[in-house]
Amino acid sequence: MSGMDWTVALVALGLIGLVNWYFLGRRPTAVAAKTGAAQAITIRVEGGYSPNRIEVERSKPVRLIFDRQEDNPCSDELVIPAFHIRQALPAFQQTVIEFTPPEAGEFEFKCGMGMLHGSITVR
Asked: How much is the pTM?
């Protein structure tokens, strides 16, 4: 292999590592703030969910406020299968989702197309 071949191979490996880190790397977890009787957190929807990892307490009401700041059709619906939630998220509006998790565990939330993902950790 020539010097140029090695350079191309090293750059390609670096880019593969960067892509894997961006899409598969661990994101910080947001702990829901207690406001009154409910645990509340605002989640920005714009090319994904931010934060995409949420931690709440079991058997206490949860209020998720989805602030959708785009009109991408992929993010126009929210699905939380474990809690039987399927909710439209209008563009450039906030939508409140409320539920009470009865048990501890890790639960997924995603867009209607299954492209955007997040998780709720119930303790």
From this structure: 0.73
When pLDDT is averaged across residues 1-8 and rounded to a whole number, the result is 86
Q: Which residue has the tokens 């450039």?
A: 92
pLDDT, tens digit (0-9, with 9 covering 90-100), for 39-66: 999 999 999 999 999 999 999 999 999 9
The tokens for 61 are 């009401």
Residue 13: φ, ψ to 5°: -65, -40
What's the rounded mean pLDDT across residues 7-11?
A: 86
What is the Cα–Cα distance from 58 to 105, expressed in whole angstroms? 9
| Burial (CB count <10 Å: 0-12, 13-18, 19+), residue 66 | buried
Question: How would you label 24-55 residue by residue, b for 16+ Cβ within 10 Å and e otherwise?
Answer: eeeeeebebeeeeebbbbbbbbeebbebbbbb
Q: Which CATH superfamily is domain 28-122 in?
A: Cupredoxins -  blue copper proteins (2.60.40.420)
